[in-house]
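FIELD: query
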Amino acid sequence: MPEPLNIAEATGRLGILTPGMGAVASTAYAGVIAARKGLAAPIGSLTQMAHIRLGARGEGRNPLIREFVPLAQLDDLVFGGWDPISPNALEAARTAGVLEESDIAPISSELEGVVAMSAVFDQRWVKRLDGVRVKTGENMFDLAEQLIADIERFRSENGCDRLVMVWCGSTEAYQEATAVHETVESFEAGMRANDENISPSQLYAYAAMVSGVPFANGAPNLSADLPCMVELAARQGVPYTGKDFKTGQTLMKTILAPGFKARMLGMRGWYSTNILGNRDGEVLDDPENFKTKEVSKLGVLDTILQPEVYPELYGNIDHVVRINYYPPRGDNKEGWDAIDIFGWMGYPMQIKVDFLCRDSILAAPIVLDLALFLDLAQRAGQSGNQEWLSFYWKSPHTDGVTPAEHDIFIQQTKLKNTLREWMGEQPVTHSEAG
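FIELD: result
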């Protein structure tokens, strides 16, 4: 049996800070508060609802994850965040229109009590939004220091023993790493010089890591996956994970594509289009912001299907992704997939998927799970990229050498085996040999 890690107990309060308090964050807050009151079940959350098998199947050991590993309890969570538009979570939830008023009313006082801090916001990165509650400062370094002060004030005022940060803000315009991102020293010099290649999400990641706060990136932005942040996380001993919540259409791809590959069915093409009308859809209507999302969404199939290994099956796939802003749809995104596959003797077949999903309903439990698992990782003495959390991401961070794993079933095994090993249990291989 592996030696269990020495994991500190989850005593006291855990603060969950979200840059962005729009549809996803306000829905996550609401769901946790409703669960605490017994008004709703935390459906979609592995930490709250999933079991984990221990040992051989015949042993019958199958506890809930939250009873197996020392996670923070829902009653111990306190929420906060920054937003350039909404003053508090109640107004954010009503503006987003994800939840019915009948679900908001019983928890309205708690949501109203989650007051948004003024945000670091730069319209260059999200042209379709206009921030009104925005920090000002001498330079970006000053803004980062304001975020660090916000973090410490929140920690003190709410009596938090520990904090985590989960980015729930918008997708920023596409960018690639530059010289300013190479080291912590170059990044700090760039902040002082207001380098145009530094985005708001990078300031939040920096502030979190300097403050010893684990960071998760829920958007496809370039933030924690930068050499300077990798260096900073190692220096500060901070775990991080990302990026881009795996919710609607990409969730379906990572479920379906492994099935096609498992049966050695070939593929000619996969056409994906989305219509959505929330703030995310408005932001992604700008070509530069869409490019950031497109890069995140397009990387999934190649890694799962391995065209270099199976060129006759997957070596020539036309993979197309489109996103269209359509206000009447609101947060209820509709994703259409037209999948062209082929089988025995090359005969073609088609699969059509029309997923009428609710983006924030799928993302909210991810926010909760990431917060609880990152907090667990920090108490377990882990730092740097938490690759075992790739289960939650469209575009998981890697070491830069090994390709990301996108098969959701392999990701789930990796996640659960990590928990087993940390607790001194054998990993499960599903082998019946011997």
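FIELD: remark
The longest strand covers residues 266-276.
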